[in-house]
Amino acid sequence: MSNQELMDEIVSEVRVCRKCRLWQYARNPVPGEGNLEASLMLIGEAPGYREDLAGRPFVGNAGKLLDRLISGINLRREEVYISNIVKHRPPKNREPKTDEVEACTAYLDRQIQVIRPRVIATLGKHSTKYILSKVNIEVRGLTAVRGLAYKEKLLGLPVTVIPTFHPAAVLYNLAYRSGLEEDFQKIRKELEKKT
Ligand code: SF4
């Protein structure tokens, strides 16, 4: 199967998924979008209000900020792949529950295996905890790990994981803004390294 066919299969499964309760509250699934050949994959937490309406990840104010961060490292949104650890919006934007993350992340794992990114940026505590747990790194708090570059074998693939803040958190706490921008420059440097 081609990468496009594999991704289409994942998206089709997400559209009819009932593996956790979240589909009941959502208008649309938000499977993820972007370039299947992307070197950079950005992984957030869960769709919000606008993402749920649009069926696309990061389209609200946090998405606009993310677009600026992506262009700040000389990439276009179409050149990266953007996804979340859960694909349906939790009611009232609450945090995803442990059983919901457990139910949903098999889709994300398959997306990573299709895209095979060189760098994964985890946006926020939940996606950082999930991705680093897969390489046996326990995350107690995001501030202890953000901006670090973890060179790991994830799902059998060599990848550098760089945790950073979720753009939505920065909208509410401007003190995080410079940290998020700094971390994106680290992502740029990592992407510029020769393989
Ligand atoms: S959030 Fe994930 S596991 Fe839950 S219903 Fe949606 S696609 Fe399925």
Q: What string gives the helices and strands in order?
A: HEEHHEHEHHEEHH
Radius of gyration from the CA trace? 15 Å
Number of discrete domains: 1
Give a count of the beta strands, DSSP E runs of length 2 or more.
Answer: 6
The number of distinct helices, counting runs of at least 4 residues, comes to 8
**Ligands bound to this protein structure:** iron/sulfur cluster
Work out the helicity level. Answer: 40-55%
Q: Please identify the top-level CATH class.
A: Alpha Beta
CATH superfamily: Uracil-DNA glycosylase-like domain
Please state the structural category.
alpha/beta
Q: Could you give a short account of the major beta sheet?
A: 6 strands, mixed
Mean pLDDT: 96
What coarse outline follows from CA principal-axis ratios?
globular
Contiguous low-pLDDT stretches (5 residues minimum) are: none
Strand order of the largest sheet: 1-3-2-4-6-5
Q: Would you tell me which CATH topology applies? A: Uracil-DNA Glycosylase, subunit E
What is the beta-strand fraction?
A: 5-15%
Plain-language structure description:
The protein has 195 residues and is of the alpha/beta class. It has one domain: Uracil-DNA Glycosylase, subunit E (3-Layer(aba) Sandwich), CATH 3.40.470.10. The chain is 43% helix and 15% strand. It is built from 8 helices and 6 strands, in the order H-E-E-H-H-E-H-E-H-H-E-E-H-H. It has helices at residues 3-15, 49-54, 61-72, 98-115, 125-133, 142-145, 167-172, 177-192; strands spanning 33-34, 40-44, 81-84, 119-123, 150-154, 157-164. It has a 6-stranded mixed sheet, sandwiched between helices. Helix 1 packs antiparallel against helix 4. The two termini are 26 Å apart. The relative contact order is 0.16. The model has no long low-confidence stretch (mean pLDDT 96). Iron/sulfur cluster binds at residues 14, 17-20, 22-23, 29, 86-88, 100, 103-104.
